Queue: 2 jobs
Job 1
Amino acid sequence: MTQPDRDRARSADIALGAQQTALRYISAPQRLLRLFRVLLMASPREKEEWPELVDLPAEKAKAELEAKTKHKVHLVETGSAYTMDFRQDRVRIFYEKDTGKVIRPPRIG
């Protein structure tokens, strides 16, 4: 068993710890289904934030993100108006108008 598998199993044990008594009274297939759900929730997810792009020129940061991800990348100047909706397919890069540099970590949303 590899280290990531052990970590996932440990996460599953912790998540199921409070339910251990309840698990004794359910069938084996139901137990497996619950364990499978916990393991899915504990699995690694895609990156949601890129702090390494702070202080880079905005255009360069945009090019890097477009090359690394499938998300639509939007440049947002400080003080500009933008919508507050959350979208999984979008990354916003906030940059300073005067310097052209990224001022906070780009993130999905």
Job 2
Amino acid sequence: MSGGGPAAGAAPRVLAAVVVPPHLSVSGGARAAEQLSAALRPRCEVTVASMMNGAGSAAAVHRLPVRSWLPPLLPWSRLPPRYRTLFYRSDIPRLLAPGAFDLVHLHNPMPALELERIARACRARGLPYVISTHGFNEVANGGTVYGFGRAGRLLWQQLVVAPVARAVRRAAGIFALSPADADIVAAMGFAGPVTPVPNGVALPGPADAAADRQALARLGIPAGSAPGTLTALFLANHTPNKGLPQLLEAFGRIERPFLLIIGGERRGGIGYDAAIAACRPGQRIVVTGRLSDAEVAAAFRRADLFVFPTLADTLPLVVLEAMAHGLPVVASRVGGIPYQLGGDCGLLVPPGDAGALAAAVEALAADPGRRRQAGAAARRRVADRFTWARAAEQALQGYGEALQGRPRPAAALLPTRPATLPATLPTPLSTTLPAGPADRRAH
């Protein structure tokens, strides 16, 4: 049965299907999906169906409740969450009632088998679907960055990469978060229209100093630091791809005074306590646990620098949030991060290189003026390029093309090379940074 498409002149009716493990307390992909859906509301009819049911989101969107479960009669409690994640199912296919929607917008690729199942249900009902590339860098590189052995890499290929690729190949359109994603979807066999739709972020409003002090006090973070003490912030799920061991190793090499705020909930197998115990006089590491929106904003305002040593990421929303708060960024040269930072918003380092990470942090710690310049450039870049209003306009264009079946001309795609490093990058780093991932492999 065909979805039929919208009547002439009518706004398209879109189901934003957010495929994400329901046990997560926060998901950048899910937050981005809901923020984009909220930005689209004035222009089209968007309904959100999320496997997280809006947890951790304050977006004003119309929702349908989603039920998620693991297949019965299997000993799921014996498996760590990272393995259970692969097998969650949902009742999103049931929501695809005939005539209810013109188009389905799939966000986030994990669990991949569920993404494929929803895509298959769309095809069975004659509904076109588009896919945003949240998490595609992690899909493409997960077999390496998650530390799997040969059997694990084979399972990753069969249970993650292959289902995502099958869904991608039959999509009516792909919404690429960054230029690097075009190579990934091409390697998956997609030959249709690719529309650039990056994440956006809202510029923060005025700070409430008293509320910030209260939020920081709840987290055990002092409201101020001694002169010469650098405050660095990391914020993400503590999953293996985020590079937390490299972060702790890098700060273990730094001799100057610092406060390192590690936002997010602790995860087994990471040496937090050993790193805390190894701190020198004047150094401190605080692991916050789960944060409220107010606590996140207070942490951004408290920091001098945002550090994000990820091993695999697509276009991390948290990097844009840090930039919106005027923070310079030290991050790994992976996925769309070079595109986010441009040439003057911070420093890029090779993924997994704790020495280069420490050197980049030291370089910015030693130069407050450079930090201020990079932070101001970061805020300007977000305001110019990464707004939800701009993303919504690009998504609407992609919806129209998907519904009409018109391919995008190749010249309309984003350039595939990432931005270059700033000319003022310190010599020791500039001589050790290799070409970015987008230059030498898919994504």
